[in-house]
Each structure stands twice: as C-alpha cells, then as structure tokens.
Amino acid sequence: MPVDSLADLPRLLAALAPSERPTSGLQCMQAAAPFEPNPLVPTLVYGLASSSDWERLLSTLRLALPATHAVWLLPPDGPPTRAPLHELGAERCNIEALFVPAVALEAAERSLQGLRHLVHRLRAPGGCPWDRAQSPESLVPFVLEEAYEVVDAIRHDGPAERAEELGDLLLQVFLQAEIAEEAGDFNLNDVVAQISAKLIRRHPHVFGDVVVASADEVERNWERLKGAEKTGRTSVLDGVPRSLPALTAAREIQRRLKKVGFDWPDRQGVEAKLTEELAELRQAQSLSEASEELGDVLFILTRLGLDLGADAEEALRETNARVTTRFRYVEERVRDRGNDLRELPLPDLLALWDEAKSAER
Question: Which neighbouring-strand residues pair with 219?
Fold first, then answer.
C-alpha cells in the first residue's frame, strides 16, 4: 500500500543511493493535493493512492520539468528505479513514492522559480552589466514595447509567438520586482499577494456569497468595490493613468465625465462642438494655437466615438493598418511597372490606390 503520511520518509529516502539523497533541503508533497513544483529543490511525492493521482502528478511535473529529467520510483519492496519523465506512462506504477532530484538553474526553464533565480543572477554581482545598470525608470520603454508586442501577437500571430511575447513581458515584471527587492521596497511575493488579494476581494460572487446574474452586474460590482478601496481619491478623474496613449486616455476621461452627467444631452451637441472646434483649428495663427485646437478636435472626436460605440484608439489603429496595406500595394504595382514612386503623377498613384481599395472589397 502506498504511504499516506510523512512517517515513512526516512525509510523511503534510505532506499536512495547516498549520492542521490538530499543534503540541503527537501520538498515533501502529497500527490492528492495540488502543488507547484520548484525544480531547484529536491522533491519527494508520496500518497500515490490512485490512477488519477498518478496522472495528475505526471501532468504537473511535465509542465515544470524538462521531459528528459530523470526521477526515482520508490517501490514498496526492492530497489528504486530511475527513469526520465517522458518514459513514464499513464498507467500507475506500483510505487510508494516518487523522488524528483533538483535540476540545475539553467535547466529550470519551465518554472517560475527558475526564472526568478535567472533574473536574480543577471542582477547579482558578476551578472550581466546591462541588466545590473537598469532602474525602474530605464525599463519603462521596454515595458511599453513588450506590452504592445503582446497585443500584436494576440491579434496577428499563433500560440508560439504569443507565448514568446508573454514571456518577454513577464521578464519585465520579474526585473521590476527584483530591483525593488534590492532597494528594500517590495518583492515578487508582494506583487503576487497584492493581485491575489485584489482578485478575491473583487470577486465576492466567486469567493463569497454574493449572487450576480450577468457580466454587466459583475462589472458594476467591480467598479463599486474598486471605488470603496480607493478612499484617498477626491476626483472622478483620479486613477486615469498618465502614461496611457492619448486617445485611450481621452476616451477614459470622457467616459468618466459622461458617467457623472458632465456631458452634452445628445449626439447633436457633440457634433455641434466638433464643428466649432474645427472652425477654431482653421483660424489658428501659430503652431501653438494649431496644436491646442487640434488637441481639442481629437478630444471631441473621441467623445463622438462613445456615442457611436467606437473606440477612437482602435479606430485609428485600424485606419493606420488599412493605409499601410493600400500604400504597400501602390508601391508594389509601381515597382512591377519599373517606375519610381516619386516620378509618377498623383492621378496615377490615386488610381493605384483605388485599385488597392477594390482589392480589399
């Protein structure tokens, strides 16, 4: 019968060769309980009472460890046997426990613990000079760039590219947490604790006894709970991130103003304001005036998007993509004809542009 307590651990470990026995630390996990293995620490898994325990254990280990990593099977009698993970089948072995030796840091590439240690090593003395020179502020451009690359991968690429870009963004989280830990501000565990507590607090319909009927009701509850948490805020505009793209920030500001009634009574009022702002833009006498009036036009256009159900940021992004696709078509046709883009008259270029639009349809 498989062991189901820690009382037999000394006997189980004694079955291993002296060179394999852990000397500086050991994780003990019960197979029936969910766990996240730390590949950098030797692990003994016991309580393998059923086939479902065995299948779940293999799945968990294969997610965190290299497929070639060898583990020790500890039977109720006889010597232990060693086998790589990829050779273990779904049928439960006749064993009391499974011993998983630790892996080297460079081989722990499938675990969060491994990544955390890699980032620590990059920042530690003797690590990478570039990584050691970074600060939270110097990494801001990379946080933004990686976030946009994740969005691109979600919209245009496959699973492998999405996984890669999410990894690049995750690295930025780990780097920021590592730098903060060095300064004594907070560490990665604090980051995880903050978001875990927030998720539980803002999902009382999952972790409490609140009943909701729809996703809209969930969203209303979320906003109410969020407002109760942010007691230091004095303005409805507090909390709009200052680093948002300008159109996205304008939309959020307009949404909040509309929510409290600081708004035009109907769409005609918005359109009249847009006409007024366009007239002021035409009358601008200097660069600073033109810049100010252009900002006003863009702000009102963003507000108009709310009435139309359109996101100004997304709308402009789609227009940029269409213009790029059409102009590339124009360039290709010009090259096919052996001409230079700058030498063709505008009517010829516009005709090719219309071709590109027709090709889209």
Answer: none
Residue-number span of the structural domain to which 258 is assigned: 246-310
DSSP for residue 214:
S
Beta strands in 77-184 (DSSP E): 81-84, 97-100
Q: Which of 104, 129, 157 is the last residue of a domain?
A: 104
Q: Which two tokens stand for residue 21?
A: 């026995």
The 8 Å CB, 24+ separation contacts for 354-361 are: 355/329, 356/325, 356/326, 356/327, 356/329, 356/330, 357/326, 359/329, 360/322, 360/325, 360/326
136 domain residue, yes or no: yes
What contacts 355, CB < 8 A, 6 or more positions away? 329, 333
Same domain, 326 and 253: no
- Report the C-alpha gap between 76 and 248 in whole angstroms: 63
Does residue 236 fall inside a structural domain? no
Residue 283 buriedness (CB in 10 A; 0-12 / 13-18 / 19+): exposed
pTM of the full structure: 0.74
Q: Does one domain contain both 15 and 98?
A: yes
Which DSSP state fits 175? H
Q: Is 34 left (phi over 0), alpha (psi -120 to 50) or beta?
A: beta
Residue 318 in any domain: the answer is: yes
Q: How many CB atoms lie within 10 A of CB 134?
A: 17
Are 15 and 91 in a shared domain? Answer: yes
SS3 3: coil
Instruction: Give domain status of residue 80, yes or no.
Output: yes
Structure confidence at residue 187 (pLDDT): 96
Count of beta carbons in the 10 Å neighbourhood of residue 295? 14
What tens digit of pLDDT does each residue of 101-153 get?
A: 998 888 778 888 899 999 999 999 999 999 999 999 999 999 999 999 999 99
d(CA 34, CA 29): 9
